[in-house]
Amino acid sequence: MNYAIQRDRMVRRLQSRGITDPRVLDAMRGVARHRFVEEALQGKAYDDDVALPIGDQQTISQPWIVARMTELLEPDGGGRALEIGSGSGYQAAVLSRLYHQVYSVERIPEFSRRALRIIRALGIENAHFKIFDGGYGWSEFAPYRGILVTAAAPELPAPLLEQLADGGRLVLPLASRDDPDDQVLARVTRRGDGVERETFGACKFVPLLGRFGWPT
């Protein structure tokens, strides 16, 4: 199977659905998404609106939402990014093409180790992984120009806001505490001591578990 052709087709579909940032489109074109899923699912890896299972009731997000969230970060090719929820490692691989360094936190040890193996096998050296409660972020390398959360939180985790650089952007799904499936995609931009909040429609993610989410 010619995955390069499939990636080109995926990128064209992303463009037709409103993804316009050329950096993001190039990053999506350059990452071998099929390497991050089981062999039996690789034929579906480039369907732009399909999330695929990776085990433990978790998924690799569909390419469209990966591209959309990445575009909302407005990456300019430099700085550091923080990802909360490594999952398969695919989102970190995309971010690695858009930031100098990427730091990714994952609570499930098996996922973090597998993501690191795949990332390194692909020759990506600027993505780093940590096993911990993602709501606490990774303060050692803060501040971050971009923070991306791949699980729905009932509120904005305070440590993540503290680790966001002035002018930096945090993109995450926010959910109702009473109904974790009631979610909206949000962006928070740091403006000195204040923040600017925006929303971008409904979305569907697994819930954030841990201190700043739901109990494990």
Q: Say what oligomer this is.
A: single chain
Count of helical regions: 6
Going across the major beta sheet, what is the strand order? 5-4-3-6-7-8-9
Number of strands: 9
What is the N-to-C succession of helices and strands?
HHEEHEHEHEEHEEE
User: How much of the polypeptide forms β-strand, as a percent range?
Assistant: 25-35%
Structural class: alpha/beta
Question: Uncertain runs with pLDDT below 50, 5 residues or more?
Answer: none
How many angstroms does the end-to-end distance come to? Answer: 40 Å
In helices, the fraction of residues equals 25-40%
**What is the average per-residue confidence, as pLDDT, rounded to a whole number?**
94
Cα gyration radius (Å): 16 Å
Characterize the largest beta sheet: strand count, sense, and whether it forms a barrel.
Answer: 7 strands, mixed
> What is the general shape?
globular
